[in-house]
Design a protein that fits this description.
The chain has twelve helices and 13 strands. With 418 residues, the protein is of the alpha+beta class. It folds into two domains: 151 residues, 2-Layer Sandwich (Chloramphenicol Acetyltransferase), CATH 3.30.559; 242 residues, Chloramphenicol Acetyltransferase, CATH 3.30.559. It has a six-stranded mixed sheet, with helices on both faces. It has a five-stranded mixed sheet with strand order 4-5-6-1-11, with no helix packed on it. A two-stranded antiparallel ribbon has the order 2-3. A hairpin with a 7-residue loop joins strand 12 and strand 13.
Length: 418
């Protein structure tokens, strides 16, 4: 699975006509340091799992032109199908050895501006690793210098050792993220289409698969005033205080999305959110660890309980889930990843949140200043939501997620009117 970002840069008077070559040569230099990104995935003949082969296979970089002007795209943070043409998507013929792990497309607009669309394999990077790679490349392109603080750490031995470690006194540690997903999948499998239509199965009242063609990836901006209003609302609804912005926004998002989807009663609902494991393992990984070091925290309840409980209770559950991510949890998570994996069916009851506010993608400066804006392309999982720092508006948060078209207006009204 690839993650893609598109960075928009407006026309500059002092534009370098040799800029594409500058980008290409600086990417080559960056790949010398970030050498796993120039490698390829391969299937291990021993266990059938994916291995990372550092064979200097290189990244793929292409150049394109369009007659469109950037101003014609309107609000750049709002995803548009046209953005799919601004990234290069390599074809997959079944052989990993031919598939680059990093792809880049530079697109020139008629107005003189340009975009840089970057894709990277999620098997290689998590969000933080992806951002640090972009930042290192941008610094090389703009100044040919990179701070020692940005030098990546590629050593993965610690995580590989933990995959074979034992847990606790009994060697058993349950991982809620996997248990909750397994339970949702079992419920979905037990609920046939005919049962859903006749109402005999209350697990999923909406035909999620049929809605995929009518899905939209939307971005909603929570202004600083809305965020502060949400925090006041949380503090007024319970004795607990001091909730983080993420805890409050994620609680609000989960409640509004579940309600908008029409999930009611004893339907099970689940919130999962990514957690950076770098500082959680013992001993901790370097903050510049370049690989995929996130695990999922999880909360499981009924739609009725989620709707009726005050937002402060939901925020507190999120805080508890965050605090449950310990070294033992991470080791158990890695062991669980070793088990046979199944594809995830469409689950409207599942809400996934990734907090990317500390990764300001729009700040990538390749030599012409910060991007006018940066946008993520939709995840293959439509129930995924991304929190990003809003460009040019201090304290505001852009929340991007996939929604069925028929509930988009209802979600927008409830989400933005606090």
């Amino acid at each position: 699975m690839f993650m893609y970002s598109v960075h928009f840069y407006e026309a500059k008077l002092n534009f370098d006509t040799n800029f594409f070559n500058t980008l290409r040569s600086s990417l080559e230099i960056t790949l010398h340091v970030w050498y796993p990104a120039a490698g390829r995935l391969t299937v291990s003949p021993i266990n059938g799992k994916l291995d990372l082969l550092c064979n200097n296979g290189g990244a793929l970089m292409v150049e394109a032109k369009t007659e469109v002007e950037i101003s014609q795209l309107g609000e750049l943070t709002q995803y548009k199908p046209f953005y799919e043409k601004l990234v290069h998507k390599p074809g997959f013929n079944g052989g990993f050895s031919d598939m680059p792990l990093v792809v880049v497309q530079v697109t020139w607009f008629r107005c003189g501006g340009y975009s840089i669309g970057v894709g990277a394999s999620h098997s290689l990077f998590d969000g933080k690793g992806f951002f640090n790679f972009l930042r290192s490349w941008a610094l090389r392109a703009s100044s040919n210098e990179v701070s020692e603080q940005l030098m990546p750490v590629h050593e993965r031995g610690y995580l590989l050792i933990h995959q074979g470690s034992k847990l606790g006194k009994n060697g058993v540690f349950r991982v809620p993220a996997f248990d909750h997903l397994h339970h949702l999948i079992e419920l979905a499998s037990a609920c046939g289409d005919s049962e859903r239509k006749t109402g005999r199965c209350r697990f999923s009242e909406m035909d999620f698969i049929a809605m995929e063609d009518n899905y939209a990836f939307k971005t909603f901006r929570l202004s600083k005033e809305i965020v502060e209003s949400l925090k006041r609302k949380v503090s007024n609804r319970g004795p607990l205080s001091g909730f983080s912005t993420f805890e409050v926004v994620a609680a609000h998002l989960w409640k509004v999305r579940s309600k908008s989807l029409g999930l009611r009663g004893e339907n099970k609902v689940c919130l999962q959110f990514s957690m950076d494991a770098r500082a959680k393992v013992v001993p901790p990984l370097s903050t510049e660890f370049s690989g995929n070091a996130y695990v999922m925290a999880s909360i499981f309840t009924t739609a009725k309980a989620l709707e009726e409980e005050p937002i402060s209770t939901t925020a507190y559950k999120i805080r508890e889930a965050k605090e449950s991510i310990t070294d033992e949890y991470i080791r158990a998570y890695l062991i669980a990843l070793d088990a046979p994996q199944k594809s995830l069916p469409p689950l409207p009851e599942l809400t996934i949140v990734s907090d990317l506010r500390n990764l300001p993608f729009h700040c990538a400066d390749f030599g012409h200043g910060h991007a006018a804006s940066a946008a993520l392309l939709p995840s293959p999982l439509p129930q995924s939501a991304f929190l990003m720092r809003a460009p040019n508006e201090e304290g505001a948060i852009d929340v991007s997620l996939g929604l069925p078209l028929q509930i988009a207006n209802a979600f927008s009204h409830c989400f933005l009117h606090v």
